[in-house]
# Entry
Amino acid sequence: MPEQFQNYIDGAWRDAADGATFESINPARNSDVVGLFPDSKAEDVDAAARAAREAFKSWSRMPAPQRGEILRHIGDVLTERKNDLAFEMTREMGKPFFETKGDVQEAIDTAYYAASETRRLFGHTVPSELPDKFNMSLRRPVGVVGVITAWNFPVAVPTWKIFPALAAGNTVVFKPSEDAPHSGMLLVQALLDAGVPAGVLNLVQGAGAAGQAIVEHPEINAITFTGSSETGAKIGAVCGRMHKRFSMEMGGKNPMIVLDDGDLDLAVEGLLWGVFGTTGQRCTATSRLIAHEAIHDDLVDRLAEKAKALRLGYGNEDNVDVGPLINQKALDKVTRYIGIGQDEGARLVIGGERATGDGLDDGFFFEPTIFTGVTRDMRIAQEEIFGPVLSVLKVGSYDEAVAAANDTKYGLSSSIYTKNVALAFKAMHDIEAGITYVNGPTIGAEAHMPFGGVKQTGNGHREGGWEVFDFYTETKTIYVDYSGKLQKAQIDNVED
# Structure
């Protein structure tokens, strides 16, 4: 019988109110059931939201540096549990152990960074237009924050949201993806063991019904979401109607430009990591290669040779480079796009099939895949496949490369390989994306830097770094008049 796990609400572990559960399975070994988890509904979310609202009264009044001490301790706990947590993450969502260790390390870095920011929640002091009057602004927490995250970074991405929310004095209702519930639970357990008080952090497991209930709950003041652009648009509509603050990080179709003077060996290494890391299941994955015609054939040949040598398998085994897709639905989607690409006239260089044999039959494995002959109007150049599939476009100039890079509804990450300093700096301005790498792939965020995109990738907010605290705080303006008399601002006080 699989192990059964619970929600965490108001300081207690409990089943879903209606007793419903769902399974989480190992995508590399489908016969391995990770556990049963509560399939929560509106009643469970209501209990979590009310608990968070009550806990907000005391948590928001705790001095911010004291909250920072708890966050620092969270970083210590995650450091102690790094390998164990990474092992369970790989078992549940598939990416290799060396990647999940990096996922946890990002959470550790975020904990320590958020802890330090509790001493830098700056306001402003400015001169008054009137005598004997003091003007300032300060930051106040927003209230209860609903956190809804994806499965592909099941520890790092939730901490991008939860840690700054807690640092700023907010309380949280957290729903991990139904494809990574165990990872979410283990993260919450680490936070509780580090000293997060009852009610400050509440865990509600489940699928769409739980997420919808979080978005629509009147006691939840802000929503932060990572997932598809389609779901994000629906969430944004509800938040707009209910006057809720919301932050969205959604899809990407990220380009790597390699110009004719680019370092091809470096570009190949970047492509292997950017395209096939996490089996291409990253919002920042390098899904389009825009190669100058002078180096196109050589670059593709080098990449194909290296990609064919990548070892697929269960990521908790040694020497595995690429893990499985997350589930059958993802496998079906990637398979469908292979057919779309071929029907559109693209040339399949390598891959294009479900990977089998050598211990792969019990998992959702797919071969590393490269298409050439791709044009800007093809669906495989425009739509997010979210798998180990690269679409290669050939261009004749820098200007053509940038035009191709910008020809998509997304704008998360981007990359350019060149030795031309002038073009590198020009690209920083010209490419329409929230992130641009020079001589590096499109992946690899650092915890102290803002993260986010433009167009249909986001809604203007950033995660990570100093900017994230703008989302989790409200600005309050303060006036102190010590003149001892009524002074009327913003009227004509100037004598003729």
